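Quick one, probably user error.
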């Protein structure tokens, strides 16, 4: 049953391809998000006790049917959500091919072409970010979280020479790192996973534009040094998750060089700006970062998971990850340096690079620049429409993440009101947005253009859905503003 005969396979492939094609051509007419309970899901799955085998085509039909009905359709042009894009067509094809050939990217000798395709891409992206190719290396990861975790590890190995053998107990003073209060939660998680502990992350305050305050950073580093702990790493963010802002990378690069701290730039989403000449300036200074996180499965729209860790210190990869074991194939002549296991937390690893390679080969850098430029224009259009409809835009970024509250009601900045608006929009099925908290605990609605298919009509429908939501929540807002007036 693990391998089906050729006739059934052909039937199955056709069914899969037809299902994919109908989903992709119909998703724009579906409700963006389902309304569903955990109980319903459990009822659906209860019959699957795996005691009796199912017909392959029936099994696939089930999967397609439930994915269509019980899934937030991030491939929908009105999914204005987190950075989960509609996947590229070439990426979908590549993922099927990667599954079929199933190369294991542990050692070079196991799949020379897969390893070399990824190495070629690492250099191509390193070049885009301005790294000198003679010293540049990197590795594909499951996503930004693994790339950030890799960054913490490489920074530890680089700054504390005994760390590799002796672990943290061989380090005299407690290592501490700095990230802004707007940075991604994966930094905190990585600090715990590295054994540093959550308290080792110093949350640096941000300025009025939600960018890391370099003076505050410098004060905190001085304080920490005086207290006998060991600063080793600054994590700057290029394109924060909540509000799309970018820390001052050039000043941080100057500061990090002066203090001999490792500078990591988490450009998981915003790094794509490097591909667009008129946006590239946002990332000035990134070429001086010691390492960079860039998620290809975010703004470059390949299917998950495709993250990338890059560094301009090629030697640090092997120092951090290489090990030996008897079952590993002997290194081929001259190729051992390219064994991915010596660059990665992973051993058996999926061929992540193929979906990147095929998407980029077909779209080209220009095709991607075009797509990003279009989404930025949709973000600008959304900002205009929101302001015209009486919403307050509360974040400042050229990137298409728009955080906003309601300026037409006294209670229009109230978190409960904004959550009610987001719920109303979701349950209308017309769009997907969320709320977030930015800066000093300010709650805002958040709409992000993250789908290359989003057009101005989609933005118009979102703004209409917001207007209906506002009308339905009006009583609630009036009530809140009265409370505000009497307290
Ligand atoms: C999404 C994101 C991450 C985490 O990446 P995953 O691919 O989701 O693991 C890290 N940092 C930033 C700024 C992000 O936007």
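Nope, works fine. Designed sequence:
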């Amino acid at each position: 049953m693990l391998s089906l005969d050729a006739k059934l396979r052909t039937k199955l492939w056709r069914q899969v391809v037809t299902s994919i094609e109908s989903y992709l051509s119909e998703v724009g007419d579906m409700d963006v998000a389902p309304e569903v309970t955990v109980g319903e899901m459990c009822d659906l799955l209860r019959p699957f006790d795996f005691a009796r085998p199912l017909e392959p085509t029936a099994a696939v039909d089930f999967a397609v049917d439930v994915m269509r009905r019980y899934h937030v359709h991030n491939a929908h042009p009105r999914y204005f959500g987190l950075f989960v894009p509609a996947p590229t067509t070439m990426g979908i094809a590549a993922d099927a091919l990667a599954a079929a050939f199933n190369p294991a990217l542990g050692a070079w000798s196991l799949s020379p072409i897969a390893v070399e395709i990824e190495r070629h891409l690492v250099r191509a992206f390193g070049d885009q970010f301005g790294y000198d190719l003679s010293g540049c290396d990197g590795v594909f990861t499951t996503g930004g979280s693994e790339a950030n975790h890799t960054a913490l590890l490489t920074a530890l190995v680089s700054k504390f020479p005994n760390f590799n053998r002796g672990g943290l107990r061989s380090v005299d003073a407690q290592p501490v790192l700095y990230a802004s209060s707007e940075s991604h939660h994966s930094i905190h998680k990585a600090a715990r996973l590295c054994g540093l502990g959550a308290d080792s992350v110093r949350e640096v305050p941000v300025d009025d534009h939600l960018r890391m305050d370099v003076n505050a950073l410098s004060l905190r580093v001085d304080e920490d040094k005086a207290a006998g702990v060991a600063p080793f790493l600054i994590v700057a963010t290029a394109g924060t998750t909540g509000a799309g802002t970018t820390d001052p990378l050039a000043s941080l690069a100057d500061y990090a060089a002066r203090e001999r701290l490792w500078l990591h730039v988490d450009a998981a989403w915003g790094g794509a700006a490097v591909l667009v000449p008129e946006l590239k300036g946002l990332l000035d200074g990134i070429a001086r970062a010691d390492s960079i996180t860039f998620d290809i499965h975010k703004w470059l729209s390949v299917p998950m998971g495709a993250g990338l860790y890059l560094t301009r210190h090629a030697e640090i990869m092997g120092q951090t990850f290489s090990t030996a074991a008897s079952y590993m194939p002997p290194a081929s002549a001259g190729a051992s340096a390219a064994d991915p296991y010596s660059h990665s937390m992973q051993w058996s690893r999926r061929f992540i690079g193929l979906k990147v390679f095929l998407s980029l080969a077909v779209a080209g850098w220009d095709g991607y620049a075009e797509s990003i430029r279009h989404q930025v224009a949709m973000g600008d259009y959304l900002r205009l429409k929101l302001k015209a409809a009486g919403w307050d835009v509360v974040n400042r970024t050229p990137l298409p993440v728009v955080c906003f509250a309601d300026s037409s009601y006294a209670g229009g900045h109230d978190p409960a009101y904004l959550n009610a608006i987001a719920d109303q929009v979701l349950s209308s099925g017309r769009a997907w947005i969320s709320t977030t908290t930015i800066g000093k605990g300010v709650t805002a609605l958040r709409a992000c253009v993250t789908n290359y298919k989003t057009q101005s009509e989609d933005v118009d429908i979102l703004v209409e859905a917001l207007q209906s939501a506002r009308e339905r929540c009006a009583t609630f807002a009036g009530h809140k503003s009265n409370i505000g007036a009497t307290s």
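Residues 83, 143-145, 148, 184, 186, 237, 241, 266, 268-269, 295, 307 surround pyridoxal-5'-phosphate (CB under 6 Å).
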